[in-house]
Amino acid sequence: MIRIVDRRFDSKNKSSVNRSRFIQRFKGQIKKAVADSIDRSGIRDLAEGKRIGIPGRDIAEPQFSTGAGGVREQVLPGNDRFTTGETFDRPSGQGGGRGSKASPDGEGMDDFVFTLTRDEFLDIFFEELALPNLLKRHLASITEFKRVRAGYSQTGVPTNINLVRTMRGAAGRRVAVGGPQRARLLELEAELARLLLGRGESDPEVKRVRLELLRLRARMAAVPFIDSFDLRYNNHVRVAQPTTQAVMFCLMDISGSMDEQKKNIAKRFFTLLYLFLIRTYEHIDVVFIRHHTVAEEVDEENFFHSRETGGTVVSSALKLMRKVIEQRYASGLWNIYGAQASDGDNWLEDSALCYDLLHEKILGLVQFYAYIEIAEDTPQNLWEEYEKVQSAHEGVFAMRRIKSVTDIYPVFHDLFKKRV
Amino acid sequence: MPRKKILPLPGGSEWSFEAIEAYDEAIGRIARNCGLECYPHQLEIISTEQMMDAYASIGMPVYYHHWSFGKQFLATESRYKRGSMGLAYEIVINSDPCIAYLMEENTLPMQALVIAHAAYGHNSFFKGNHLFKQWTSANAIIDYLVFARNFIADCEERHGQEAVERLLDSCHALMNLGVDRYKRAPRLSLQKEQARQREREEYLQAQVNEIWRTLPPQPGKDGAAEEKRFPKEPEENILYFIEKNAPLLEPWQREVIRIVRKIAQYFHPQRQTQVMNEGWASFWHYTLLNTLYDENRVSDGFMFEFLQSHTNVIYQPPYNSRWYSSINPYALGFSMWRDLRRICEQPTDEDREWFPEIAGSDWRATFQFAMHNFKDESFIAQYLSPRLMREFRFFTVVDDDASPKLRVGPIHDDQGYQTLRQRLSDQYNLGSREPNIQVWNMDLRGDRALTLRYFSYQRRPLQGDFTDVLGHVAHLWGFPVRLEEQTASGEINRLGEKG
Prior knowledge:
The structure holds 2 protein chains of 2 kinds.
Chain A: E1 3-6, H1 16-25, H2 27-39, E2 50-55, E3 71-76, E4 87-89, E5 111-116, H3 118-125, H4 134-140, E6 144-153, H5 163-198, H6 204-222, E7 233-241, E8 245-253, H7 260-280, E9 283-291, E10 295-298, H8 300-304, H9 314-328, E11 335-342, H10 350-362, E12 368-374, H11 381-392, E13 397-402, H12 408-416
Parallel strand pairs in A: 8-9, 8-11, 11-12, 12-13
Antiparallel strand pairs in A: 2-5, 6-7, 9-10
Helix pairs in contact in A: 5-6, 9-10, 10-11
Chain B: H1 17-33, E1 41-46, H2 48-56, H3 67-82, E2 91-93, E3 98-103, H4 108-128, H5 130-135, H6 141-159, H7 161-173, H8 190-211, H9 224-227, H10 238-245, H11 251-272, H12 274-294, H13 300-313, H14 329-345, H15 349-354, H16 363-373, H17 376-383, H18 386-392, E4 395-400, E5 405-411, H19 417-427, H20 430-433, E6 436-442, E7 450-455, H21 466-477, E8 481-486, E9 492-498
Parallel strand pairs in B: 1-3, 7-8
Antiparallel strand pairs in B: 2-3, 4-5, 6-7, 8-9
Helix pairs in contact in B: 1-4, 1-12, 2-3, 4-12, 6-7, 6-11, 7-11, 7-21, 8-11, 10-11, 12-13, 12-14, 14-16, 17-19
């Protein structure tokens, strides 16, 4: 009589329409909050959902209500000291747990705080941005095929026999073919037992039944346990597999002139690029190459938090990058992105070498290469050489100068904005 | 009569469908013995996400789409994930059959608590209380919501999502002023709604056209007629007024306004009976589960877990606690129903003096009467006993912005009981809690402006964002909207104008 309905497996996201409408409607505010929040977080922790807050007043749903003032009589529980007629001062700064207060985690109470999923977050953040040269390599790279299971077939090689399916088919066939005979067999056995109660073995009736039983058993035995008809083979088909992997090279100068602040700017830039790439590619490798006069490949921790002194030879990093590509990412299945950050210092004779390396050996392999120079003073010879590279490789190579942290987002935006 | 042997109910904390069924059966039997009359009910097992979905749409299983529900969802999700809020473990829908949600994360004792609380407590209240009987149609609400959702989705298709969204924004701003407090709304039903909708569209448009007729006035008939106000009597249901009289609205817009209005009306009784309703449900879950325990059908462990959540729910922090936000309707309601039973069963001299007609009466009959015929405001005015006022240590603080200090009004003593009770009852009077704003006039001959009048009470001003709301009214009305304030002394002040 009682009805219990299990709704757990019904659609979960009943609110997703409402949710996306909310995001749509307050895109402006949310975008700003997203841009703010990226300034405050490090590489990779942005890969998850993100809590953001937008000003509560913007999204208020006003209704008529009465404000403070006039005469108010309020009944409160828990009287511990008051008697009728007594007067006392208005509590200043609001005690008793009422009034507005800042929440412990630093967001103002007036902010409307919520969590965006990773996808929502990145969609908003990278709206109007596009990866350059994505399409070209994407189409060109459908070169790999994957064998995937595609049901069962009646033909195939013995190694592909699917035992379960085969035996199930055989069992079914045996039941189907042997069924009527089995029924007849039971019937005859019952008849024989009945006959034997009254008559002897020599009775013609008994003989007839025995004979028929014999024939029946022989026919049943002739139904094969397994027939070639039953065989089932796993079927496979080849499916073209678009490459959805990328490798991102982070090249950074760690010579003495790159201080913590500059590194921090570089880190933000790398973070943005990483986030941008994970929207497009299923799998991303990140290769960190740091250099002063020599280059080495390191992990993320060492990349950002170590400091060397001495001069700068940028070409060493480019050489290493070229070597790593050849060794590990040469298959043509990788979309390769390069991002280089430096303060523009380089050993004078080396800059021309950098030009050659990029021009001849690297830019032909990569999808896109971005160079950012974190410096305030006038550009030096590396910048000049790179300008030559840029004019030779329009669309693959881009370079910008960044002065302070606040420039990062505009510069990034500028680098990757959709070109129509 | 041979007594059926009573077996213990399933123990442990893991629930199963069989266990829930067993509990429901056992609780239902006791509820029927206690004379609770309920709609048939349906228990639905849902997950946390689904509970949050339900929150976002005020618990309704079907609802139209709007960004504000998305906002609600995000807010709930964010608070829940941060751990600053547990999800209420029950949502129950006033429909026939009554739908109660059980969350899959709940333990078995919690499920039993929810069943007793929602499926029997709230359910019987929905069925019995006069406000619900009079103002809501439990058997038609789901149908109506289906109709509403389809209609609004259809409008979005025809007129664009943005137009519909803006219209709904404006309607939502006036939702609380879209209820009839005194007239009974006609019954809702899907078929009728659909059948009549077209007819109504045409009729309404014709009505509006009549009001706004621009034929020149007939000679000899002007003069006194010009001075007449329209509407003749102020209209409290602003959405209703706009739906029927706004000159520029298209038929589909009138229908959307109507939908919001109807839904507001459906929820209105819940807002009027919070203390009674929650108290009633809490009283019954407490009574029903205790009876199970008395019958030895549940273990001590079960009771411990149940009592722990129960005491959390009905806890009332004192005014100076950091947990205090307002009077907890569960606490007040539960205590009042318990106290009412005590007055019936073990009246003191004080009770005999205060409640001569019910002291010593049959508690079940008294309960039925009280549950059927009251709302929060009158329930408190009628049944709050001095003893309870002492227990809660209620006191009044008068905050008059004309005087430099706060003054303590009536407290829980002999002189204070009557007025204290009256004050508390006032506090639950929606009429004094919400500003009283009515349609005062519309300018038929001039700029077609609509004038709303705020009748101020206790010199309380309107919250500063009223101009935003006026903007919404103007959006619906299509012409300027003015807001005036009428003070207690009869003075009229212009507060603002939009449009």
